[in-house]
Amino acid sequence: MRERFQQKYNLDFANEKNYDLVIHTDDLTPYEVADIIIEQYKKLEIYKPTPTIPSINFHLWEPCNMRCKFCFATFQDVKQTILPKGHLPENEAIEVIQKIAAAGFEKITFAGGEPLLCKWLPELIKIAKQLGMTTMIVTNGSRLTDEFLKDNKKYLDWIAVSIDSLDDENNIKIGRAITGKKPLSKTYYYGIIDKIHKHGYGLKINTVVNKVNYKDNLAALIQYANPKRWKVLQVLPMIGQNDNTIDDFKISEQEFNFFLDNHKEIKTMIPESNDAIKGSYVMVDPAGRFFDNAAGTHNYSKPILEVGVKAALKTMNYDLDKFLIRGGFYDWKNDIKQNLSKEEVSL
Fold first, then answer.
1. Nearest Cα to Cα of residue 221 among 213, 230, 212
2. CA 204 – CA 193 distance, rounded (Å)
3. Which residues contact 37 (CB under 8 A, 6 or more apart)?
4. Annotated catalytic residue, options 53, 60, 66, 71
5. Which biological process, per GO, is one annotated for this protein (predicted)?
6. At a CB cut-off of 8 Å and minimum separation 6, what does 109 contact?
């Protein structure tokens, strides 16, 4: 038998070096043998599962046309060390998306910086959708045109618009303005909302509550917009991202709750405190690396294109329970279908 194996398979099955595990069973019970096998299997790379958090945020673009002073994803550390342009080439960004989809992620959110500054964003959205993922962008809205909304309807499911205040002076103080000086008007924001609804996209609104706007009341806007989700985030200090400016914007738990209490009638509001945010998002940086913020700073993996999704994920600190508690899982596919005509759904 040993000779036949050697001739047919060029393998000496009696050589223990050919095996990951060799167990001498003379003094072991079947249960003890099984335990050894299971423990060894758990150490193998193939056992390490992709996290069950099903959605991922791809911060594909560091450049931004606004200057939000509290921004907790500036990626200046990335730009100054390994990525001078602040983004991957188009072909590498596509490859990152392909690997993300192959790993089983169900929803991808394209963020920045400002993702609409990326000329190949429509191609990335298209590829992600064709690979079976629900697609979303997070944008400040300044470049959201009728042309973009019309051209991308087939592949883009959700649009999340960042709106922190309707007061021009507040937005300038925050930096939520073009080059930090030209805020978008109240009329402009209402117009964006109308356009998104007109084209049948799922609408989310993101608001970062901080020292400047925590007394603002956005109830009228939110009631008019009727978003599927209104995410209300407590401004987040992040070492290496907003150290130099965050002190002017930090708020206490009481101030955050003040804002929440003023909007408690809004049923679609999803509050996220600092603790809820940390470690509950699966994120990829502009260099194509997973990163987490669980420890109050960005912890980066090795590049996905270099080591693969599973190996990169092993070094991350993502918390599924936090993801579920903050309402991260919702019916993102069927919520979209409710916005479409019967003809579009059948397609």
1. 230
2. 10
3. 21, 23
4. 71
5. defense response to virus
6. 55, 56, 57, 58, 136, 137, 138, 158, 160
Question: Could you tell me whether strands 202-209 and 229-234 are parallel, antiparallel, or unpaired per DSSP bridges?
Answer: parallel
Catalytic residue among 56, 64, 138, 277: 64
Q: How far is CA 75 from the centre of its chain?
A: 15
CA 31/CA 189 separation, integer angstroms: 65
Annotated active-site residue in 60, 66, 68, 212 = 68
User: What does the domain layout of the chain look like in residue ranges?
Assistant: 2-46, 55-346
Please say whether the structural domain 55-346 has been given the CATH code 3.40.50.2000: no
CB-based burial, 154-189: b 16+ in 10 Å, e otherwise: ebbbbbbbbbbbbeeebbbbbbbbeebeebbeeeeb
68: annotated active-site residue: yes
**CA-wise closest residue to 332 among 254, 229, 214:** 229
At residue 5, the pLDDT reads: 80
Closest CA to 186 of 210, 202, 170, 175: 170
Write out the E strands in the chain: 55-59, 107-111, 134-139, 158-162, 202-209, 229-234, 269-272, 283-284, 289-292, 299-303
Count of beta carbons in the 10 Å neighbourhood of residue 92: 15
| Residues of the chain under the 70 pLDDT cut | 44-51, 335-347
**DSSP secondary structure string, 73-92?**
---HHHHHHT-TTSS--HHH
204 phi, psi to nearest 5 deg:
-120, 150
Provide the token pair at 136.
Answer: 């979303």
DSSP one-letter code for 113: S
Active site residue 71: yes
199 Cβ contact list (under 8 Å, min separation 6): 149, 150, 153
CA-CA distance, 169 to 89, in Å (whole number)? 37
| Model pLDDT, residue 345 | 35
C-alpha 61/C-alpha 296 separation (Å) is: 22
